[in-house]
Amino acid sequence: MRIAAIQCPAIADDAVRTCEAIVQRLRWATKEAIDLLVFPEAYLLGHSYEPGVIRSRAEKASEALADLCQQVATFPVTLVVGAFNLAPPDTQNSAFVVERGRISGRYAKAYPNEPGVAAGREFPTFVRSAIRYGINICNDANHPDAAEQVARGGADLILYPLNNMLPPATAERWREKSLANLVARARQTRCWVASSDVIGQSQGLLSYGCTAIVAPDGHVAARVPELREGAAVFELPERQLQPMTA
């Protein structure tokens, strides 16, 4: 399976512009024979730690996802894109799996660090091109048990949509730690790991970007340079599908 993890500037509260950016990347991915395309955490409408902003974006997510699905229905690439969403009575931080314009699955962040966001309790896995994969989101990488749950489902690959847009001093402290977490999760689970992150400055916050593909032994197979827009691309070796475990 050929995977691409996108590193790009964040877009806030502009679903039209975000969808245009996703479609542009899907055109590129189709030409490059990419099977699976991953975007950063809450990319569709933007990430936030403000409860009111989170709730507003969650309320708009259903319509934005419907519009996105309509626009990407003709593309053969599997898309993973995130958004805050309503899961009554809760608000969750989710990553959606979209295939030919249809939402085929969803993972909700197990360890949300956003105020008012409820934790997900399921760890589904999905299959593309004979590779089974699961998803953890950003802060989940600090919790080995979240990755272990995905690995127990027979995953070969764990996707990590990230959003490291932080106060500059905090962003500096996390420059090395973000990648170290991904390496640790790969070695722990013996899974491939792929992360997608935002870059740049916004409202006094900064993200250097940690978009990488890490092999099960912990070596970094591909990475986008810090503060640069681009994609980490790698072809995962074929493996026999692992059986799911209880």
TrEMBL record:
Record key words, sorted: Hydrolase
GO molecular function, one term: hydrolase activity
Domain CN hydrolase: 1-238
Protein name per Swiss-Prot or TrEMBL: Carbon-nitrogen hydrolase family protein
Phylogenetic placement of the source organism: Bacteria, Pseudomonadati, Pseudomonadota, Alphaproteobacteria, Sphingomonadales
